Amino acid sequence: MSSTPPDAPGRPRARRWSRKRWAALAVVLVLLVVLGAGLAATWRLQSNLDTSPLDLGDGSGTVEEGPLDVLVMGTDTREGEGNDQYGDDDDSSGSGLTDVMMLVHVAEDRSGVTVVSLPRDLVADIPQCTDPESGEVHPAEEDAMLNSAIANGGPGCTVATVNRMTGLKIDHFMLADFNAVKELSSTVGGVEVCVNEAVDDPKSGLELPAGVSSVEGEQALAFLRSRAAFGDGGDTSRIRSQQSFLASLARMIKEEGTLMDLPKLYEIADVATRNLHVDDDLGSVPTMVGLGTAVRGVDLADMVFVTVPTEPYALDPNRLQLEEDAAEDLFEALREDRSLTTPTETPTASAGPSPEASTAPPFDPASVPLSVSNASGVEGRDGDIAEVLEDEGYTPVESGAQPAELPGTQVFFGAGWSEAAAAVAEHLGVPSSQIVPTTDVAGVLVSVGQDFPEGDRLEVSSALPGELNGQTAEQYTCQQAAGDW
């Protein structure tokens, strides 16, 4: 691992790719060529792609080796076929703003993928950018909206802005519009998503029953775009649903063997390339071949989705700014190509309690209003987990089976019980991404999901540290309805 600064000319970097969001499916195209689909198919896929320069700030290009960094963006443009129905003209201008921004980092040894979500409400310093078509020079802006950088000449200005923010050197970008989400989600046969309560959001058009549903087309787009349906109604809540969607998509591709199904790969590749705008270098099939093979063998436990640490912007509480120290720690880990996760081990009976479990909590466990419900589909799991918690000094109440089975175990907590919820989750091995605030619970509620059918601790291979918000692709999460936080 090199200590060379990220901007040093000698630092090796690679042409990168990432299997993220709707654009991630472009990996198919790689596998298609690797497995030999023929020159005619290759030419058609390459001719589908729309391209433009990578970096409008300083024009830097990529080099041949190292970790891979790809900026994946979704635009809210109302232009183009099928996009004019999503809101009024004043919702976006021209080519649109970047409604979604995800920085995808693929480790140099290709052992892991980290996807960092950048909220569209984040303020940033946008450097001077030159429009590659008109030649117009857009002056630098301080504390501007990150999602507006694309208006200063195109996606290459967003790349330049994120480079400055993170100290990284992005190798490629992918840009997609609303239509890309609809077509790709339908082409893969739908993606399973989970909500704790029924959702009916007239703003986005999202309608889902409680539990697990498969969404595609308009409903997939509504799930990814909705702000009013989940959590506190802000962009960070929407990011949680996007991360959950992508984790589910990754699991589906792995479990269904999609990467080995050539006809399906070609179908997905054709849809993806028709709906993508990429940088000039990525607009070549040979480059995509190398990028696709780079991420093909990544384990679900090593595919990480995390939100950049933020806090309310000092001059406008409706905007966000980087939480400087925590964000810099994250960016430094990416620059140094370090994994964000730590492996987890299920303690054995002979090993005794973990050091964390041995630490006395700052409250009396017996005083915590604690209940356990069963959403696993396995009879008696609420009783099993209640016994485990009784051994830790809690007095849980078993509430029986929930109406809807849920894929993920969750620990819900009401106002004033966050520390107790964290302690209960620690005892049970439940990741922080599955700890959920709500106004529906007076105390703490453990909802045992389908991922916890047996044993005393939930088995996950890796977890994010508590100071980071996010999940791995291995973890099952459900979205909490708005108004319940």
From TrEMBL:
Region of interest: Disordered: 74-94, 335-380
InterPro entries for this protein: LytR/CpsA/Psr_C, LytR/CpsA/Psr_CW_biosynth, LytR_CpsA_psr
Coiled-coil annotated residue ranges, if any: none
Domain Cell envelope-related transcriptional attenuator, residue spans: 98-254
Residue ranges, compositional bias (Polar residues): 340-351
Signal sequence, start to end: none
Family annotation (Gene3D superfamilies): 3.30.70.2390, LCP protein (3.40.630.190)
Domain (LytR/CpsA/Psr regulator C-terminal): residue spans on this chain: 368-452
UniProt cross-references to PANTHER family, sorted A to Z: POLYISOPRENYL-TEICHOIC ACID--PEPTIDOGLYCAN TEICHOIC ACID TRANSFERASE TAGU
Family that this chain belongs to: Belongs to the LytR/CpsA/Psr (LCP) family.
Entry protein name: Transcriptional regulator
Source organism (scientific name): Kocuria turfanensis
